[in-house]
Every structure is written in structure tokens, then in C-alpha cells.
């Protein structure tokens, strides 16, 4: 006797969200942030730029804050967990600098990052996820570099880790965002030498 059971319908929800649509929305978020800034950006303007309905955005994110933080964190936090072990403190520091340069190479990022930081100072609801989704993971990757250096015996003197973690990113950020200068491999080599010298107590 033939079965009268109806075929199962495909699952709906996040599992079947179109990656093409998600990619278009993410690109639109970056363009809107760069062109208008966080305060002027809206879900409507992102939907128009992405060429999608606003409902497509709300199926992925519950708010403008959540959408912005996730898009930026996926770009700025390179990979999950600890960074690749290069085998030396110098190699790890240079790799970290290369990561920073990779996401700052996009001309939009300088404008976006400064604007987002300013808005975070005025908006606690935005500041908290910026810290937990971007700030904390980035610093955790830096801490892993210092932990590995200690295990290798590369740290000759006690070092203030908070100062070092600030230092790793600060010079590249200042050069690219504040001064709008290019970052060359030679410049990164010099920064690496300086950072390693501070960490190991040679400077």
C-alpha cells in the first residue's frame, strides 16, 4: 500500500540563509559606515544599498548595533583562538602586525574605525559588544604571543603586558589612520624590532 505521508519540507531559518545575500549586506554595511557614519546609517539604507528587503537583514541581525559589530569583528578579528605559532617572538609579532595591516588596507576601515570608536564613547550599548567581540579577542591573540615567548625563554625581564599589547597595534594604527601614510615591509620590520626590543628588555 503506497504511503500517504507528505514529503518533508526543507528546513527554514538561519541554516538556509543565502550566503550571496549575506555577503551583499556585509559589503553594504561597510560602504554605508564609510560614506555616512554609524549614526546616519539605518537598516533601510543598508537594505537599499545591498538590493535586498529589510526583512533579509532582520533574519540575520536583530539590530543595527548587532549587525555593525558582527560585520566589523569578522573583518578585524583574524581567525578564532590563538594565532599561528611562527616559532619565534619576532615572527609572531610580525605576523600580528601583518594581520593588522591586512584589515586596515581597505581604505574604508580608517574612516569606519574612528567613527565607531567615537560612537562607542557615546553609546554604551555599542561600546560593550565592541569590547567583547573585537577588543578582547584581539588582545587575547596578543597575550598568546607573549605566553609562547615566555615558554620559549625569550622574555628576559618582567614586562607590562598591557603596555605591550597597546604598543603592537598603536604605531601601525597611528600611521595608517591618523597620518594616512602607507605601511611598507621595511616599516613593519622596524616596528617589529622595536616591539620585540621592548618585550625582551633590550630597549
UniProtKB/TrEMBL annotation:
| Keyword line | DNA-binding, Transcription, Transcription regulation
Q: Does the keyword Oxidoreductase apply?
A: no
Which InterPro entries does this one have? Homeodomain-like_sf (IPR009057), HTH-type_TetR-like_transc_reg (IPR050109), HTH_TetR (IPR001647), Tet_transcr_reg_TetR-rel_C_sf (IPR036271), TetR_C (IPR011075)
Q: Gene3D superfamilies from the xrefs?
A: Homeodomain-like, Tetracycline Repressor, domain 2
Q: Does the keyword DNA-binding apply?
A: yes
Stored PROSITE patterns: HTH_TETR_2
* PANTHER family given in the database record: HTH-TYPE TRANSCRIPTIONAL REGULATOR RUTR (PTHR30055), TETR-FAMILY TRANSCRIPTIONAL REGULATOR (PTHR30055:SF148)
Q: What is this protein called?
A: TetR family transcriptional regulator
Amino acid at each position: 500500500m503506497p504511503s500517504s505521508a507528505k514529503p518533508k519540507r526543507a528546513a527554514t531559518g538561519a541554516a538556509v540563509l543565502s550566503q550571496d545575500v549575506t555577503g551583499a549586506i556585509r559589503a553594504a554595511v561597510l560602504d554605508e559606515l564609510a560614506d555616512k557614519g554609524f549614526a546616519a546609517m539605518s537598516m533601510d539604507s543598508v537594505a537599499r544599498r545591498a538590493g535586498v528587503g529589510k526583512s533579509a537583514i532582520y533574519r540575520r541581525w536583530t539590530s543595527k548595533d548587532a549587525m555593525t559589530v558582527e560585520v566589523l569583528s569578522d573583518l578585524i578579528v583574524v581567525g578564532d583562538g590563538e594565532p599561528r605559532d611562527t616559532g619565534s617572538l619576532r615572527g609572531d609579532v610580525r605576523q600580528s602586525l601583518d594581520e593588522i595591516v591586512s584589515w586596515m588596507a581597505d581604505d574604508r576601515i580608517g574612516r569606519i574605525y574612528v567613527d565607531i570608536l567615537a560612537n562607542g564613547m557615546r553609546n554604551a550599548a555599542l561600546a560593550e559588544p565592541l569590547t567583547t567581540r573585537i577588543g578582547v579577542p584581539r588582545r587575547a591573540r596578543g597575550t598568546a604571543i607573549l605566553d609562547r615567548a615566555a615558554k620559549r625563554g625569550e622574555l628576559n625581564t618582567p614586562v607590562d603586558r598591557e603596555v605591550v599589547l597597546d604598543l603592537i597595534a598603536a604605531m601601525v594604527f597611528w600611521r595608517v589612520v591618523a597620518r594616512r601614510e602607507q605601511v611598507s615591509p621595511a616599516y613593519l620590520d622596524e616596528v617589529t624590532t622595536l616591539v620585540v626590543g621592548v618585550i625582551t628588555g633590550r630597549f
